[in-house]
Here is the input.
Amino acid sequence: MNSRQSLEFAIKLARSAAYVADRCEPIRPAAMNRLLRVFQRRTDRWHSALDREYATSAIAVLEEIFATEPLTRVWTALLAAIDDLSPQASHRPLAEHLLNGHVAVKRGALELLVDPVRVPPHEALSLDRLRRNADTWSDLLVGHLAIDYDVSEFAVDSIRARQVTSDHGPDGPLASHSAWRIVAASVRGSFRPSPGTIGPNAALNARIATAILACCRTAYPLDKAYQPLPRVAV
Here is the structure.
């Protein structure tokens, strides 16, 4: 699963979030533990890569860190929403732990981004554009969940996430099928993975998506009124 596929998965997850949150039972500990392990493995690999990678390898790692952040934020916001709806659940602390891990890696990535020896300036500009786009997508998608759930803290900018929704009425800017198509087209048009690579952690990204689907399984099958979550491809 490359970085753009991760972004597209985040969009589909956000689109299905209300259906999943309303129907999902507390997630089984075994499923959650599998998810935590694979998230932690990817985080550890990122930390290690930021300490040693140069040139093209560093660029691929930075691209992956920035582009996979929307999925981390949407999923952790969804976990918190499930928590709010189910008195038996206790997912919010785990959600905060997962998000904090990604944010910590992102801080290291931003430090690397301004190192002209390891990241050429023209590449740094392109990566920073990706980061800003990913931040905007994160706030739009988490803001969509924040219409119904207390999850704005999982946005990059909680004020912006709330503003995005309040500016577009009670149903927010993503109330129509055409709006979701526009968001997906924007991702495909503005983000193109580096040529010749599927990403340094493509297999782990796919395992994370599979683990998320396993956690949501109690909410299925989705009916025709909601966008089904995609099959996961490496």
About this structure: The CA atoms of residues 2 and 198 lie 5 Å apart.
